[in-house]
Amino acid sequence: MSRSVLVTGGNRGIGLAIARAFADAGDKVAVTYRSGEPPEGFFAVKCDITDGEQVEQAFKEIEAQQGAVEVLVANAGVTRDQLLLRMSDDDFTSVLDTNLTGTFRVVKAAVRKMLRARKGRVVLISSVVGLTGQAGQANYAASKAGLVGFARSLARELGSRNITVNVVAPGFVDTDMTRVLTDEQRQNIVGQVPLARYAQPEEIAASVRFLASEEAAYITGAVIPVDGGLGMGH
């Protein structure tokens, strides 16, 4: 049965791969994007998730187009990397406002209708960095680690209504963000990964789609690493 799916930050990289995976399975897929061009083939809504009013308006448009959101993938995120002593208050708070508080905003908007329907799937996109930490990414790591506690609290809160909340924690993925690295930087990263390669965005998408499927109906509060073994033990 075709479901109404929303992927935030779905216009490129991991988000676009996730949107395509659901569309290929026959779902109705909407994406939000903050900048750049909207992807072809999806109902796209420009939305800055740091703005509560924009989030509310986006959900109104999406519900009018394809019905209440039944599967939410909270993928939108930003980085502002800097060593701690050089990191400004704005560097820290802006990353948390998008990655953590922004996710709170979109999840809250989606869950209202899920509670009425007594069913739903929520998947949050965290990062291996949120589990292992990374020098120069204290703000990003804090925001991504926060998603784990957020998801597990919601798993307990919403489970009796047949709403699952899970986390996917990607490692290093072959996207535009990582392609700007030098060959030496890329080799250093790959050298830390037991599988000795970057992930493809489609591999992250496959795990997300599984968590949103009927086969995963009894999985909630889980953190699924898709990182080639980089973060094992965390």
Structure description:
The chain is an alpha/beta fold. The protein has one domain (4-225): 3-Layer(aba) Sandwich (Rossmann fold), CATH 3.40.50. 44% of the residues lie in helices and 16% in strands. The chain contains eight helices and seven strands. A seven-stranded parallel β-sheet has the order 3-2-1-4-5-6-7, with helices on both faces. Helix 1 packs across helix 8 (201-211) and helix 2 packs parallel to helix 3 (89-117). It is globular, with a radius of gyration of 17 Å. GO terms for molecular function: 3-oxoacyl-[acyl-carrier-protein] reductase (NADPH) activity; NAD binding; quinone binding. Residues 3-176 form the Ketoreductase domain. This is 3-oxoacyl-[acyl-carrier-protein] reductase. InterPro entries: 3oxo_ACP_reduc (IPR011284), KR_dom (IPR057326), NAD(P)-bd_dom_sf (IPR036291), Sc_DH/Rdtase_CS (IPR020904), SDR_fam (IPR002347). Pfam families: adh_short_C2 (PF13561).
Give keywords.
7-stranded parallel sheet; alpha/beta; single chain; Rossmann fold; about 230 residues
